[in-house]
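A reminder from the course coordinator: this example appears on the midterm review sheet, so study it carefully.

Given structure:
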């Protein structure tokens, strides 16, 4: 029996030949073009966020302290002055709510007569009639950087170092302060989705 010649092999008898030819061509082209393919553009965040500035200072115990002591920790930066005695009712509320090691008290007063943080700390303990185990630091530069004008001025900072809430003025509602603090302590910011729902 004679073997078929190439001219006798029609595409109808070998339909898979055209499919294989297309597949080989696609693979060759893919190998040539993929290194030059344009990368997909990265998604841009539609949310804005404020990072609390780096800071340093000397506490009322004459100990150096800076922002690294609060890394990965939610905390409150509280700004006031030694002469603002009516602010003491607010620090009294914050001091009762904010856990140990998570509240830093800053003075924004540059006057020399108010520069003694040990004296201010003692004044707070006397007027509030209890021990205040919180660092008290003079830091006018930090207060100016974040725009502190009215006092008392409280900044709630989440574990990522982002400003979560800013509260200015007298606060006397323990429940409200507690709720705000708990929201800050669990708040996580994602550049693409914003704050998590619990915050």
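Designed residues:
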């Amino acid at each position: 029996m004679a073997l078929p010649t190439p001219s006798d092999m029609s595409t109808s008898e070998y339909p898979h030949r055209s499919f294989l030819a297309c597949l080989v061509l696609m693979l060759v082209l893919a190998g040539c073009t993929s290194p030059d393919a344009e990368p997909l553009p990265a998604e841009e965040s539609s949310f804005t966020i404020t990072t609390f500035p780096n800071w340093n200072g000397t506490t009322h115990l004459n100990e150096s302290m800076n922002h690294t002591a609060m890394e990965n920790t939610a905390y409150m930066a509280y700004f006031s002055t030694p002469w603002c005695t009516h602010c003491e009712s607010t620090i009294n509320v914050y001091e009762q709510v904010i856990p140990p090691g998570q509240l830093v008290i800053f003075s924004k007063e540059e006057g020399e007569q108010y520069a003694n943080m040990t004296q201010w700390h003692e004044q707070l303990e006397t007027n509030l009639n209890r021990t205040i185990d919180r660092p008290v630091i003079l830091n006018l530069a930090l207060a100016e950087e974040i725009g502190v004008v009215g006092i008392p001025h409280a900044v709630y900072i989440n574990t990522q170092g982002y400003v979560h809430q800013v509260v200015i003025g007298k606060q006397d509602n323990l429940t409200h302060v507690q709720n705000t603090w708990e929201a800050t302590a669990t708040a996580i910011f994602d550049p693409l989705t914003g704050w998590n729902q619990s915050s």
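Residues 1-16, 19-35 have pLDDT under 50 and may be disordered. DSSP finds five helices and nine strands in the chain.
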